[in-house]
Amino acid sequence: MNETLSPPQVIQTQDHTENPTIAFAKDVLKGLNSTPKRLSSVYFYDERGSQIFEEICELDEYYLTRKETEILERYAGDIISKLPSNTHLVELGSGSSTKTRILLEAALARFTQTQYSPIDVSAEILTHSANDLKQRYPDLQVEAVAGRYEFGLDYILKKSVTANCIMWLGSSIGNLTRVEAAQFLRELRNNIGEHDCLLLGMDLRKTPEILEPAYDDAKGVTANFNLNLLDRINTELGGTFNRKGFHHRAVYNVGEGRIEMSLISDDDQVVKIENLGSEIHFKRDEAILTEYSYKYSQAEIVALAEASGFTVEQQWLDDEGWFSLSYFKPQNNAPELRAL
Questions:
Q1: In this model, does residue 2 exceed pLDDT 50?
Q2: Whether residue 253 sits in one domain with residue 193
Q3: What pLDDT, on a 0 to 100 scale, did the predictor assign at position 22?
Q4: Domain check: are 194 and 309 in the same one?
Q5: Are 199 and 214 part of one and the same domain?
Q6: Contact predicate 304/338, CB 8 Å
Q7: DSSP letter at 252?
Q8: Percentage of residues of the chain with pLDDT beyond 90
Q9: I want to staple 94 with a disulfide (CB 3.0 to 4.6 A). Which of 118, 214, 300, 335 is the partner?
Q10: Is 336 within the bounds of a domain?
Q11: pTM of the prediction?
Q12: SS3 of 115, please?
C-alpha cells in the first residue's frame, strides 16, 4: 500500500518565474486601465473569497452545487467503474474538495487505495482540505499543488505513473470564453495519454429567471464575493477602494449564453493604488467586468469536445436536466484545434 503523505505536500510556488503577488499586481494594473475595465475571476479565490464561495454553494438560489452533488451521489460508482485500476485522480480548482469526496469514497471502495492531487490557487484552503482528507481517509494518498492550473498539471502529470482522470467540477470551465475553453482543453489533450480521461462539470443553458438569481442572491452573498475583489486590492496592493461606492450586477446574455458579472461605480470617483503608483478614474455607472459564466447546450458540449481533441463517451444529468457531468476521452490521432 502507498503511504499517505504526512503532512500532505503542498507546492506553494505558482510558477517558476513570477511571484503570485506580482502577477496579481500586473493583472490589476492592466485590467483597470483597459477599456472596458476588467478583473480576472481567478482572483476571487483568496482565503476570504474561497470562504465566501463555500457560503454561495449553500444558497437556495445557487442550484449548481446541489445538482452536481445529485449526479455524483447517484452515479459515482458508475463513473469510477469506467477508470483503469488505481487511476490517479487530479482535480482542478478543488477548493474544500467537499463534492469530490463522493468520488474519492467510490474510488477507495473499488481500488482500496487511491491517489488524489487537488490543484487550487488558495494554499490556505488547499492545506486545510488536504489535511482533513488525510485524517478521514487513511488509504488516500494526497499530494496537493497550490498554483495555477497549468503549473499544477505540469507538475503532477510529469510525475504520474498511472492513468489519470482530470476532474474539473463545478462548471468552472464556464469562466473561459468558448474559444479559450477549447484552447485550454486542447492543451490538456496534448499533455495526457490515451488511457487518461477528463471528467467535466458544465452548467446547461436555462432561462434568465433561473440563472440570474444564482448569481445575484437575495442575501447578497454573491455581491459580497464580488466586492471582496476590491478588498483584496486594498489589502495586498494598497488600494483605496470604498466598497460602498460600488454595487454588484449579474445579468444573463441569452444570445451569448453567459452570465455577465460586474462591479458598477455609483459615482464619478478616483481610486489610488499606492503599491502600483496608479490612479484609476471611474465614471458614474462605469463597470468593472469580473466574470463570465458560460452555459452550454448539448450540441455545444459535443462541439467543444470535438474542437479540443476529445469525444464525449458518456454524460450524466440531474433529474431536471440543469447540469451535466461529461466523461471525455482523448480522440486517437486528433486533428489540430478546430473552430467552434
A1: no
A2: no
A3: 86
A4: yes
A5: no
A6: no
A7: E
A8: 75
A9: 118
A10: no
A11: 0.89
A12: strand
Q: What is the CATH number of the domain that holds 106?
A: 3.40.50.150
Domain that holds residue 118: 9-13+63-206+296-330
The reply to whether 316 and 183 lie within a common domain is yes
Cell numbers placing 198: 477528463
Query: Can you tell me the distance from the alpha carbon of 307 to that of 38, in angstroms, rounded to the nearest whole number?
Result: 28
pLDDT in tens, 53-89: 989 999 999 999 999 999 999 999 999 999 998 899 9
Is the pLDDT higher at 143 or at 208? 208
Same structural domain, 229 and 195: no
Instruction: Show the cell assigned to 242.
Output: 470604498
CB 340 within 8 A of CB 307: yes
Averaged pLDDT, 17-21:
66
End-to-end CA distance of the chain: 45
Domain match, 52 and 144 both: no
Buried-state track 201-214, b at ≥16 Cβ within 10 A, e below 16: bbbbbbeeeebebb
- Residues 150, 27 share a domain: no
Compute the half-sphere exposure of residue 264: CA atoms within 13 Å on the CB side of its CA. Answer: 11
Q: Is 81 exposed, middle or buried (0-12, 13-18, 19+ CB in 10 A)?
A: exposed
How many helices (H) does the chain have, and how many strands (E)? 10, 14
